[in-house]
Design goal:
4 domains; alpha+beta; 12-stranded mixed sheet; 4 helices
């Protein structure tokens, strides 16, 4: 019995998995008809299968069966692969015989002309044999790929059903089921000219590995994932007890009563390998927020191939007012960074992860965006500002006994140089720090801060520098540390 073919026409893709909707047509005679329907994949959940027929068609005895394909197309392809391998083996044996010239040389009746003809024919003959072997190897590789495809198709489950029709005719039908081999991830792009509003583009990276290409399918994306086992977790008792003294304990290692389990962020783990991704610029998707998830319904139809490669689909664009600043922390990195300062409330609630940044249409790097919505503003790093150059040098100036008895002191200093290599004026924010004391006997005193804003609680220093074109500004910091003469300070970073 010939099976009825179906095509995927609609998919609702979750973060992991999807609901597939297939469509087909069946030719029925009046009365009861037994049919076989193809289309299920090896990665589909068979227990979620649903068939939908017109109201005047009744279905019964619906079950999924394993197909029997004896002497099918896969057997023919396997025979072709075996025949190609036999030819390859024969040609390699022939080449081995041509290379083995010792047998010819031992023939007593071989003339000089025969030997010369053999020697002259040897290179060309070996070249032809090797070329034929390479051609057969390529043919064999293609046959193996075709065999895998055909074998996959032949071994897909079939749906057997008894359909009863009042009148003969061709009837459309649909079948839906859950598919495991599909997923999507959030991707973001930030576009700006560092002057006007910041444009945030929200995209979806869609992938599917069902073994068949989806052609002309309607796509909707859902932010949740169906739960195959929706059991509410239970809490086991947690007990407190006295801890027995332990020998050879490492100083400072605090015992832990309970171990916390870190949540694994799927979006963070996704690699940024976008070189293989096809980008589709389409109208924005329609957004519907339900009680458990958000759904994006795409306005166009798509061709999505079954492969490790994925594709991008545009979902939403946001225009966000921004102010642009240049900041540097030369103690950690002598490069200056261009940042966009935005109101946190202007950022979409779902944004979380890496964003590709484009400055004036040119890719400048990746920014990790994870706003804290309790804060009023949020800084987004857009890349390095190469025309602002910095240097930092630190040193211990001197050490001596302090005026007070039983104390000693040391003076430390560092210099920061900021150079504006731009043709226009530049405002640069520079951050640094001086150490804080956590011991009552250690005192930190500021000597010179070059007009920096100093936060005594955190030890942070902040300079707001306005530099003319090609101007250089020098910042100097000195601080003194005092501590008891009979003790030593365990940690300073200079």
């Amino acid at each position: 019995m010939k099976s009825i073919q179906t095509e995927v026409k609609e998919v609702q893709i979750y973060r992991h998995g999807c609901t597939a909707v297939r469509q087909g047509k069946v030719q029925l005679e009046a009365g009861t008809n037994q049919v076989l329907i193809a289309g299920l994949t090896a990665s589909s959940y068979i227990d979620t299968l649903r068939l939908h027929f017109p109201a005047d068609i009744s279905a019964s005895a619906v079950h999924v069966m394993t197909p029997d394909h004896k002497d099918g197309e896969s057997e023919e392809i396997a025979d072709q692969i075996a025949a190609a391998q036999e030819q390859i083996d024969a040609l390699k044996k022939q080449a081995e015989m041509w290379q083995n010239t010792s047998g010819f040389a031992m023939l007593q009746n071989a003339t000089i002309d025969q030997a010369e003809k053999y020697i002259n024919a040897y290179p060309e003959r070996l070249k032809l044999i090797n070329a034929k072997v390479r051609s057969l190897e390529k043919e064999k590789k293609k046959l193996n790929e075709k065999l895998n495809q055909v074998y996959d198709q032949e071994n897909r489950p079939l749906i057997s059903a008894l359909l009863t029709a009042e009148t003969a005719g061709e009837y459309p039908f649909e079948m839906t089921y859950q598919e495991n081999a599909a997923s999507w991830d959030s991707k973001y792009e930030i576009h700006t000219d560092a002057k006007g509003p910041l444009e945030l583009r929200f995209k979806a990276e869609v992938r599917q590995k069902t073994g068949e290409d989806w052609k002309g399918v309607r796509v909707s994306l859902r932010t949740g994932t169906p739960v195959r086992s929706a059991n509410l977790p239970d809490l086991d008792p947690v007990y407190l007890d006295f801890e027995e003294p332990r020998k050879n304990m490492v100083f400072g290692a605090a015992p832990r009563m309970m171990k916390a389990t870190a949540a694994y962020d799927m979006e963070e783990a996704v690699s940024e390998d976008t070189a293989l991704l096809k980008n589709l610029s389409m109208p924005e998707a329609a957004v519907e927020v339900t009680s458990t998830m958000t759904e994006y319904t795409c306005s166009s139809v798509y061709d999505i191939q079954s492969a490790k490669d994925g594709m991008y689909i545009d979902l939403q664009n946001f225009e966000i007012p921004a102010e642009y600043i240049i900041k540097a922390v030369p103690k950690e990195d002598i490069r200056a960074y261009l940042l966009a300062c935005v109101n946190t409330a202007d950022l979409p609630m779902m944004i979380h992860g890496n964003a590709s940044v484009y400055l004036e249409g040119i890719y400048s790097g990746t920014a990790y965006v994870n706003p804290d919505y309790a804060e009023e503003t949020y800084l987004i790093a857009l890349g390095t500002e190469e025309r602002i150059r910095l240097s930092r040098s630190a040193r211990k100036k001197k050490a001596s006994e302090a005026l007070l008895r039983n104390q000693q002191s040391a003076v430390y200093e560092f210099d920061i140089q900021v150079v504006n290599g731009k043709e226009e004026e530049a405002d640069v924010s520079v951050s640094d720090q001086i150490p804080l004391s956590r011991e009552q006997g250690i005192t930190v005193e500021t000597v010179s801060l070059s007009s920096a804003v100093y936060d005594a609680k955190t030890g942070k220093l902040e300079w707001k520098c306005r530099l003319a074109p090609h101007e250089t500004k020098n910042l100097h910091v000195e601080y003194r540390v005092l501590w008891p003469k009979d003790k030593s300070v365990t940690y300073f970073e200079i």
